[in-house]
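so my prof wants the structure for this chain in the tokens format not the other one, which i didnt know existed until like an hour ago. anyway here's the sequence
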Amino acid sequence: MIDFGNIIDPSILLDGVFNVTLTATFIPTGRQNPKDRLPADLIIPLSNLSPGSPNLFAIEDDAGATTNVTIPDNAMEAYVEIFASGNSAEEFWYANTPDEFLPLFPESTGLIGKGPFREIQLLIDGQLAGAVWPYGVIYTGGITPTNWRPLTSFGAYDSPTYWIDVTPFLPQLLLNASSHSITLAVRGQGQNPSFNSNWFVSGSIHIRRGASASRTTGKMRTYHAPDLKISTTGGTLGDNQTVWTRVDAYREFLVESELRTSEGLKVVTFKQDLHFINTAQYADDGWLQWVNQTSNGTTSSIHGDEGRLRDAFIYPLNIFSNYSNFLAQSGGYSSEVNQTYTRALQPPTDMYRSIHSVQHARGSVEMDDWPVLRHAIRGKGQTDQIFAYVDGRGQTYFRDAATKNDGWIRDVVWGTLREGNPPVPRSQLYGPEGGPGFR
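here's what i got, hopefully its the right format
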């Protein structure tokens, strides 16, 4: 699924364009790379199935979005791939304030509630089948737009997706010939609903079928899905001059089934172990905000004695936002962001890959003095990134890049994939002070 909705508005420094290249590789049967996983025999979309508009569900309440599906009788394996993106009041969900502390700030600050914790749930016939704790993608206009020119935040144009093995639920899904409900739901920390509007969510079921029409049977042996453990604490410091909050969360999940397929009898186990911590501090009535968040965990599945899925990740995120001069006659705002994406993923239908991205961005925007509709008139921004990619074929890609004031000042690339993704030409590199800036 590809959806590039673009805003062109020079007054807010959103005036870029992009080129998209799609590449498809077709491999004849029997010629797959031995290190690659076999692709799915059948893919069932989890979407609104609209023929003329983006297929994403726009989720606005705790009910989520449901697709009714019928699984083939000879399905041997089934995996769900999930995409999720917070938008509008949920775009910066990781910086949202727990509701119990919002009364400490004036409404003029514009802080958003429902807390910083978000979970994407997959439910089969209303029963939890797995969870996703998403990476906080910062899009190109996010936090401070000048941070991301021309080097964008990791994931801005290629948001990560997440896998859940639902093979242990096949006995339930194949129990009869009728359809079953697959629901994608979002959970936050608020009430009715638990999150703000809205989240774009979609997914797909990847199914492998047996060589014969033999019906898959089995039984679920273990289902361990305790309630999410989550706590919120906080208080004030220095005669109420500073407010602090802390959110801790933990989820464990385990399901195990015995399946008899056309290939014989096997035990399938799917488990998750997820951890989350978010601390925040606020000063100057909330116009100054510090956010420190880390989510980490593992998702894995074993079929018989073979590992089919493993996803180990850690996503540290640190943000400082300064809006203390935002309401001044000729004011502005600034930020500093440190974000890491470290993930080792063995997907069920593709080769192993590991990605490590570390970014440090800082920037500022100055506003004009119009009394009502204000515009950005100039800005500064600088971003450094170290990126490393390694996959199961032995392919590698490493990059050390830096940009400043809308120009590249460093770009070094090495690895086996360098030719396909070369560095910026030396003729396009600026000196230490960077490019022409933002005006």
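also thought this was worth mentioning. The longest strand covers residues 242-261.
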